Amino acid sequence: MRLELDRIGHAFLGRAVFEDLTLSLGDGEIVALVGPSGCGKTTVLQIAAGLIDPLRGRVRRHYGGHAVVFQEPRLLPWLTARDNIAYGLAARGISKAERRAMAERRAAEVGLLARDLDKYPAELSGGMRQRTAVARALAVDPETVYFDEPFTAVDVGLRRVLQDLIIAACARDKFSALFVTHDLAEAVRLAHRIVVLSDRQEGIVAERILPGMPGERDDRSVFDTVQAWAKDPAFAALFDGDRQ
Amino acid sequence: MRHGLAFLDWVGRYLWSGWAGAAGLFCIAAAWQAGHELYGSFILPAPLETVREVAKLAQDEAFRYAARETAERAGLGFALSVLIGTVAGIAAGYSFAAMRLMRPVVTVILGVPPIAWIVLALIWFGASGGTAVMTVVVASLPISFAGGLEGVATRDRTLDAMARSFDAGPFMRLRTVTVPHMISYLFPAWTTTAGSAWKVTVMAELLSNAGGLGGDLASARALFDIPRVTAIVLVTVGFALLTEYALLQPIRNRLEQWREAGQPWGVKR
Lengths: 244, 269
Prior knowledge:
heterodimer, A: 3-stranded antiparallel sheet, B: mainly alpha, 12 helices
């Protein structure tokens, strides 16, 4: 087990977001956390990543280091793409030459060109910025990566490319990942396991282990799975906009 | 090598941009000349006459000493007010309680007219450089304070959370997330402080009879030596221009190159 969330609960200004949520993350496993918007997915991720403390319950982390890919790229506008990728390494006190080499290797892995590395975020396209953010997370060789709806703002074609990139990186670097998304097709495509968070403070209402490995499922099977789940009451909130 | 060339490119471009500024200054000189031709030398000496007077004064040992004295006082006042104001502003920006406490204090300091500070400082320090330095510090401290406070208060908390997710310590977060953002708040405050430091120093020197350019100005006025008065004004303005465009602006320009990168083509140069 890389991560265990044990009966955690959280509230904002007295209003409960979720209660009694228990979730674990295995070695090299990608767990997709899905749920309608506003149900507290991001809060679960922030608690898991240690960005906020839960009001109740315990978080146990059994790994060396983690990284977070946020919904927005969150690049530092005053650093070049190269220095942004190396940010986590700089925080760890790694020497400049080493940082450069590692940043360049990770940049190549996520499909950034060498000539883009000297540009500032303002000079990069939206897709390139999110690639940079992914490279920054992978650069620290994390054992666990938290993805917070990272590809909602990129177009469909690029989203596939970035999903494939994460599937490949996970298979290669053997990290575990908690992938928050509201897109069921995305979850079915890249996860080993899917958990559904309730929008009525009931914690996790459904859990499905997906057959086969991420990246091996073809579009047909992804589509069929999503269609079949649309009729499942556990997933109803994801498809029913009126409940908000 | 590549960095050296990039630096030279930047220096060249910065110096070249000086032409636009020089054009503005020459416009002022033209208006000045027109005023001189209208009212004559006694009311307003010509720019050329003033420049000649400055050249003559530059040879004068006593005047050079006075100018250095003023420069030291203005520099010390600037450094102290920027240091104290910025540090207090940063502290207030991070701590809500400190902000609530310090804001009214700053308003009080701001509300007391500088001339009153000069009178008080005269009583405390006598006719010495301390009067000028203290007046500069007190008069311009609130500006740096407000800059530091606003800079910290408006920092991007999402970037701060990103830095925390990489286990960046408080000092690294201050250095990489907060300070670069604060620069755009601090530099306007600092340039205003630098400009007012010169003005206030000369004023305090004139009123406290503490030597320096202000003391020189007082005696030139007593002697009705109008070219000397305009020459001293020109020297003071020259000092202010020098601190702004030879010291502060180049630093800001260097630190904010990333901002230029975000501008669309055509706006760049």
